[in-house]
Design a protein that fits this description.
The chain has one helix and seven strands; from the N terminus they run ββββαβββ. It has one domain. It has about 90 residues and is an alpha+beta fold. About 15% of the residues lie in helices and about 30% in strands.
Length: about 90
């Protein structure tokens, strides 16, 4: 299923990341009105620097649409705090 283009009421071209105000952990990732599956992971200083350089050298392009599978994500989510968290393995 293709979601986006001009078939939604919002015209944003980026994802929205919502974080827990106490822990800073990601609790939800959205594209327009669609919740996206995600992994929240802490990275080391080397990876953080790689991402900073990557964004400077290759600025991200806008997202116009996302193609979703017909089935829900196989990842399990659990309610915690003020949102849904990927279930710890």
């Amino acid at each position: 299923m293709l979601y986006g283009h001009s078939d939604t009421i919002h015209g944003t071209q980026e994802v929205n990341v919502e974080r827990d105000p106490e822990t800073g952990g990601v609790i939800a990732v959205w594209f327009r009105c669609a919740m996206l599956p995600f992994t929240d992971q802490v990275v080391d200083a080397e990876r953080m620097e790689e991402m900073k350089v990557g964004y400077q050298e290759n600025p991200p392009r806008g997202i116009l649409a996302i193609e979703f599978s017909k089935e829900p994500s196989p990842k399990e989510y659990e309610l915690g705090g003020i949102g849904l968290y990927p279930k710890k393995e």
